[in-house]
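Q: What would this complex look like in 3D?
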Amino acid sequence: VATTVGIPQGLLYYRYHPMWKAFFDALGVECVVSKPTSKATVKRGTELGENELCLPVKVFFGHIAELDGKVDFIFVPRIVSVEPRELTCPKFLGLPDMAKVLDFSTPVLAPTIDVRRGRVEFAKQAFALAAEVGAPASRVPRAIRDALREHERYMGDLLAGKPLRLPAGEPEAGRRLRIGVAGHPYNIYDPLISMDQLKRLAERGIDIVVPEMVTHDEIRDAVADMPKALFWTYEKEVLGCVKHWVQNDLVDGLVYMLSFACGPDSFVQVLVEDAVCEGDGARVPLLSLVIDEHTGEAGFITRIEAFLDMLTRRQEAIPA
Amino acid sequence: VRITTPNMGGVDLLLTDLFERLGVDYLPSPKTTNATMKLGLQYSPEFACLPLKVTVGNLIEGLEAGADATLMVGGCGPCRFGYYADIQRRIITGLGYEYEAITLEPPSQDLRQFLATLRRISGDASYLTIWNAFKVSFRKGQAFDRIEKRALETRCYETERGAASAVKERAIETVAAAKSPDDIVSAEARALALFDEMPRRDIEPLKIGIVGEFYLLLEPFINFDIEEWLGERGVYLERAVYLTDWIGPSKKNPVGGHTDAFVAEAASPYLDYKVGGEGQATIGHTMIYKHAGFDGIIQLLPFTCMPDTIAKSILPAVCKAQDMPALTLIVDEQTGKAGVHTRLEAFIDLLDSRRRARAKAGAPMPAGAEVTAIDETLATARA
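A: Here is my prediction, written as structure tokens for the whole assembly.
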């Protein structure tokens, strides 16, 4: 029987899962992904996690709980830095440590990903990971190659908007609205955390753009004017895509989804608000939706509907 | 320019001395009050951490009092603190204030900018002048910190409530008046001697270590002055962070007594990674206090503080494995003094009854050993 590695369907899963799967496939290890977030996942995660943690981390713990006991290992990488001179959120830095004290019976695989430490260190982590799951070291170079290639393909697909697979609804009236939905992938793609926002918007005939559709270079250029560069990579991307859309007049409105108690987002919110007002009075309407485990669906929908009504009326008042 | 800074413990004492040496016009922001909090809350993002909200209030009050420039330190993450200066500037200029926001980014980030900022603050003094002034003022800051530390250690023995705090005030005045490096050293000795003259009760006090996020540990207004409160109820205290240790470039922490590397090693069985802020130090110091025979620890953190929320997630496992009682106090703008005091009272009662139970069972009291090596505790924790 092949060794199995459980991959919790939360947090950075949305960004890296094809890469992880390719890596483990090449090692001859079977990946078991937890089911999409359900109410039960949230409930279990909220019981497990410290009260003050952000919802996505609690949800992540719920996914681990689902996998616990059913697989040989659970994959909780420590993703420290994915771009030179930048870091990720502290909670990613401490994620494996927080997971380990939750008393799960399944051992946690926690390689440290830190690009600031160079390729050799990266390779070392990959070899150590292979050794931990009992895969031969000879397969590692190929696994790394497969993983990186698969990641590139996936990022390319995301850029083209492919994995979204959203229903194409018809607009109720007038020109098709285009809305940028900004936020962390684990907030906007998780069906439960986001309350299926993307689908709802698409069904109403709205054109959606998401951060993954903005290129690395576009983000870099968009944030070049910041007096102080953001040191969190994923938050820099959220801000960068907002600035890119605003600067180039690409969207009619912005929905920014952030989770309560998210440290970086509490600040990025200020930067996003500044960004939508920048330039010579050119403003893009912004709806910030703060999500936590108590958020009610009805309140959420009401706010979005009001926002869409406002955008439609605005569109009628300002000829294109 | 007239520079103001936010309040944090004795930072104004240190900066007053430094800026006087450099001839910089310095106006410490008015003492933090409820009005400061209210001002900060009104304009800060809802779930930003409390120190940001309070310091926004401080800076506005400083500008209102007549300053036309603000000074903040920067940082390079991952804790939000590194981005405070930019957010403060955006909020305050958004309110229509016109002033110069000076940010001193750490030299590791951009050495040239760091040096240029130093020159900007000091009115183009030479680097040597700045360094010499900093050295002396920093030494003075260490003296202030040692006074604070001594007050934490002796307050529990006072025979009359408020005696230690009164001595502390006199001690600070003594050191504040000293100017030359030699004067500072001798003033420090005289100041610390004042504590020895204080009449003492003969008791075996409960020992509690205070760990957590540095701003909450250092700013008495925000932590409800729990150090004084606990000390006056007969608790011997030690604190994980002191101002000069926090600023200090050496990482040797001469006031607190443990190097950063040592604290990190102590934390490593449970949190083997620096997660920013004091996250790892909170765990490390808990282990050190356990080893030193303390009865318990109190963790202080602002609501939504990322590094210390990580520590809080891990702390229950540490406390369970090490048999170390801990009380975590999360502070935000809604936190009330009475609620905090009730919990502190209950915690002291708990520690007290643990002691009595131990005495009844004939178990030896935990030894108050000097912590130099933590190998034994570490070995047990790793096993």
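A: To summarize the key features: Chain B touches chain A through 41 residues (CB under 8 Å). The mean pLDDT of chain B is 92.
Q: Very helpful, thank you.
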